[in-house]
Amino acid sequence: MAAEWGENMTKFTTALLSAAAGVALLFSATAQAAGPKIVSGPGALPECFIPAAKDTKYFQWPAKKGPYRIALANGFVGNTWRIQMIKTAKAYAELPEVKADLKEFKVVSTGTDAAAQLGAIEDFINQGFDAIVTIAVSTTGFDRVIRLANQKGVVLVPFDNLLDTDQVMEMGEDQFKMGVMSGEWIKKYVGDHGKLLEVRGVPGNSVDRDRHLGFRSIVEAPGNKFEVTEVVGNWATGDSQKVTADALAVHGHFDGVFTQGGSDGTVQAFMDAKAPLVPMSGEGENTYRKQIAEHAKDGLKGMSYGQSPALVAIAMKAAISALKGNVMPQKVFIPIPYADFETLKAGVNYFPDLDVQFFATNSFPPCGVNFTAPQIMAKSEANQ
Q1: Which of 3.90.550.10, 1.20.1200.10, 3.40.50.2300, 3.40.50.720 is the CATH number of 37-173+309-336+362-377?
Q2: Does position 161 have pLDDT exceeding 70, yes or no?
């Protein structure tokens, strides 16, 4: 009896120790894949990955041996910018120095359904991808996939439309500042009163929101007396042209325009309506810059800031850097490319002979990112 009892106790103790070891191993694995550590800066390539603010924190992931599996989880794909962004991502993945670090590169566009995009990201994580770059459909709702990515040791990099969180590494440009620049441009050439048209982007997107807030912070400041008509152009040429035409039909004329995207469509609507061309701030479309160069003498005193589609390449570069164990800023703002009717130069910041829809800002020398139009246009925007 005593011998049997002793044998059972031995088995019980062995099982208990084994279970404890398993739990310890589980906690150890969880700890190792609990996301990036918060560390001190500076980070890798500080001339490229510029911290968004002085108090930006720094992340460091455990170094992984390459080559890596990286995915692009896009949402909306119905405008020139998004199409060019996907083509740029594919072109970047094929550069010899990048291709050497890639085992696989996948692209999927899920449309404007946030749940579909989150499902695609979760699927990539569960498939074992090392990093995912994404333009979020919504600025919120990513908590679950962020936790899952951290548990699996996956680097998640939102870019362009940034999330309302500091728990992931993000790549962008200062959208609020773009709105401020646009408001200041209007004030400079219109004055402190008049009728303004604001053509907004895709609703619910942080880019649209922040540009709008920056613009309004200037034109609605004390002392100004602007009447602002607001329409939604979805950053698409056709949509912007239609809503601008409708606004002109209702209101007759405007003294200045801020158009977030589809800027060439906004100008075309003025031309079709034979409405006087007015000072305008818009995006970096090559066609818009051609319109400015040709019609500045007719009143189109245009300013063109650039949210570059090449931002995807910088996001991919950041993901690879993080996977190699480099220290990275949590949020990066790259410099805003900018040109106006006085600084446009053919062949440098716009291309008069290029007739296809194309964004002109694709060069970021500090990041080693520089694409030609043929490199980008040779690619497809299809999923892969």
Answers
A1: 3.40.50.2300
A2: yes
